[in-house]
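Quick one: sequence plus NAP SMILES, need structure tokens.
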Amino acid sequence: MKKIKVGILGFGTVGQGTVKTLIDNREEITMRSGTDIEIKKIAVKHLNKSRAISLPSHLFTDDPYEVVNDHEIDIVAELIGGIEPAYSLIRKALENGKNVVTANKEVIARFGRELLPLAAEKRVDLYFEGAVGGGIPIIRPLKVCLAGNKIYSIVGVVNATTNYILTKMAEEQWTYEEALKDAQLKGYAEADPSYDVEGLDPAYKIAILASIAFNSRVDVDKIYREGISAISPIDIIYADELGYVIKLLAIAKEENGALSIRVHPALVKKHHPLASVRGVNNAILVHGSSVGRVMFFGEGAGSLPTGSAVVGDIIDIARNINFNCTGRISCTCFREREQKDIGDIITRYYIRMKVVDKPGVLAAIATCFGEEQVSIASVVQKRRVNTSAEIVWITHPSRESSIRQALARIERLPVVEEISLLLRVEE
Ligand SMILES: NC(=O)c1ccc[n+]([C@@H]2O[C@H](COP(=O)([O-])OP(=O)(O)OC[C@H]3O[C@@H](n4cnc5c(N)ncnc54)[C@H](OP(=O)(O)O)[C@@H]3O)[C@@H](O)[C@H]2O)c1
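Reply:
Sure thing.
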């Protein structure tokens, strides 16, 4: 039986979940891969840190280049995170003819376009199942199982932190600040939560998924991004009364050859499959031409779930090494598609505003909407505070640029005190 040697960069949350999975399931993994997978070296930053898993000290090094330059190592698993030194280490490993597994969404979203062709040139594999959705299989299903489909759309709840916060706001009637604090106490949110709550993490993930699904390079910096910090408990209550829940969605759609890729909170109907994704779970709904709609659901982060994805990649590469066929699945971005501006999307909108409570106000606002080609599906006066009234409008599908023009005019009306929130409605 062929021996495959693995070098691991990083022994934190995912590194330890990967090693634990390799050790605990060794027998199954050996049978399934047809190879004997051995951990040759593990690079960490702090050699003296105490770890939950104890391993012989000779396995550890604080020089990651000792791993990527080791002639005996066949597969390097990069589990450090961030752009540097991860990007340079992956690059060096590929240049050295090593197969690479990574769970690093930033590096793949920003540099996949150069690293995947490099892997192809070197006839090695670069796999990254753990980079999106933690333990949920989604990269390989898109690249392999759904390869026969034209993909129409991918809509996902792909950030555990924000989904936990929104779930707590909906189910416990907590404010955003209370739910964030609880998420931080439970270890679901960082001390600086902006990476998650402002939507950067889901933007990296949807960039990766969209580039595979639509065979096009995606520029992360062109993805429209809006976080959840502006959502208040009252919006969750109003959404509920209207038959919706609020979710932070990562959306990628093909529309007349162009791509609409965006991350923002949205109202989804209570019976929508993504509405029931609670807490730290993630789910990704894919709509394909032949398969119809399929949803991938599970734990979107965590040590063992992400370790499961990393080990799956290692096993697949071990099989490829065994059959001398590494480098089969390479970069699939063979098209350049335009990324649509947010102003060009057409969807329905939820708009909450505060107005002076007197006759003729609704008509004045409705005129602004009408003159900007925005048609109204419903308007409800929700509550009265002193001389003000809170109004919620739901529009029919409208162009976002028209909505913005209408709101700019409405904001200038003397009877309008505040446009409190605009949310998109995802059907
Ligand atoms: N955590 C999750 O649930 C999750 C889910 C999906 C994907 N991911 C991705 O998985 C990757 C790893 O995340 P993580 O949560 O496991 O991170 P983590 O817990 O912070 O672990 C990072 C590891 O990298 C090591 N490290 C840092 N700089 C290093 C350097 N210069 N040389 C060698 N080792 C270095 C650290 O060493 P020390 O231990 O000595 O400090 C630590 O062991 C990231 O790309 C992340 O986005 C994470």
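The chain is about 35% helix and 30% strand. The first strand starts at residue 2 and ends at 9.
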